[in-house]
């Protein structure tokens, strides 16, 4: 009678052949089976994930979350997945921005960190100290907006953070927050949307009240330089969403915008939906997404895997 083999003793080459046939979600689960399966995945280059996931954060005081949050994966239809335990304080922090697998999180003391909820990796950002933003302006942090970029392999990152009147930034290697050259923008309303183009190393920012767009270049090691400013049509507001490429990908709707409900309606499921640009129809999410926990926020993001 032959010797019995454990599933953990499967040949790495055989495992990689299996990995090639798995969906992104199944591949993540397979890597978590045991250390040998995880080790075999390091020599496997997965296809780039093109399916957005929705992450739902528990509300403060939600006792059924146990420091976890939920994932909804459109390609898996009526299924939701629970993250690992991310700490007892997780329900009291807020997501400001996403990039790839990473989330930019802010706690009640206005400390920021960059978190990967799939792996538990965390990068603590520098504390916000004087004189970058004077103490009297700290209450503005409650309505803050941020922009995140991070390199998955090197962990180089750039974070731009605005508190109504102030723009500050930090990146790997400087270990502090720095203000922009024209930091105080004045008025009662600041920036409502920011986008960073890493290839061009430029930040694009839009101010609602003033109806203008500004562009800063981050090409050097010093503070960013303003390279463009122009007035634009005064828009009524933005809702953070992810625009999906216009081609057929299993599990997502092409030519669509995935809205996260960011804003006053962040706890309302009706504000989290997929909008079809061609038909102008709204597709609501399955009820099973919202029933397991009382959530306080939700974000679409594009998780990825590294070797």
UniProtKB/TrEMBL annotation:
UniProt cross-references to InterPro entries, sorted A to Z: F-box-like_dom_sf, F-box_BR-signaling, F-box_dom, KIB1-4_b-propeller
Gene3D superfamilies for this protein: 1.20.1280.50
Domain of life: Eukaryota
Pfam families tied to this protein: Beta-prop_KIB1-4, F-box
CDD domains on file: F-box_SF
Domain F-box: 10-50
Protein name, UniProt field: F-box domain-containing protein
Upper lineage: Eukaryota, Viridiplantae, Streptophyta, Embryophyta, Tracheophyta
């Amino acid at each position: 009678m032959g010797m019995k083999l454990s599933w953990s003793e499967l040949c790495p080459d055989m495992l990689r052949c299996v990995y090639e046939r798995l969906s992104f979600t199944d591949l993540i689960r397979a890597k978590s089976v045991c250390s040998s399966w995880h080790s075999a995945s390091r020599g496997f280059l997965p296809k780039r994930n093109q399916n957005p996931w929705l992450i739902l954060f528990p509300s403060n005081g939600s006792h059924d979350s146990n420091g976890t949050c939920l994932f909804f994966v459109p390609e898996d239809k009526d299924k939701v997945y629970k993250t690992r335990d991310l700490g007892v304080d997780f329900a009291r922090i807020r997501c400001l921005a996403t990039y790839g697998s990473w989330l930019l999180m802010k706690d009640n003391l206005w400390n920021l960190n960059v978190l990967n909820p799939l792996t538990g990796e965390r990068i603590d950002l520098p504390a916000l100290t004087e004189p970058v933003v004077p103490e009297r302006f700290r209450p503005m942090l409650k309505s803050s907006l941020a922009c995140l970029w991070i390199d998955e392999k090197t962990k180089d990152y750039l974070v731009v953070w605005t508190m109504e009147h102030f723009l500050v930034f930090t990146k790997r290697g400087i270990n502090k927050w720095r203000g922009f050259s024209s930091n105080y923008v004045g008025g009662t309303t600041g920036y409502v949307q920011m986008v960073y183009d890493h290839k061009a190393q430029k930040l694009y920012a839009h101010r609602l009240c003033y109806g203008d767009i500004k562009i800063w270049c981050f090409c050097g090691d010093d503070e960013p330089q303003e390279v463009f400013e122009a007035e634009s049509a005064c828009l009524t507001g933005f809702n953070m969403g992810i625009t999906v490429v216009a081609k057929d990908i299993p599990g997502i709707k092409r030519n669509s915008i995935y809205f996260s409900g960011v804003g006053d309606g962040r706890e309302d499921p009706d504000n989290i939906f997929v909008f079809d640009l061609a038909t102008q129809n709204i597709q609501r999410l399955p009820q099973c997404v919202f029933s397991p926990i009382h959530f306080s926020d939700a974000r679409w993001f594009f998780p990825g895997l590294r070797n």
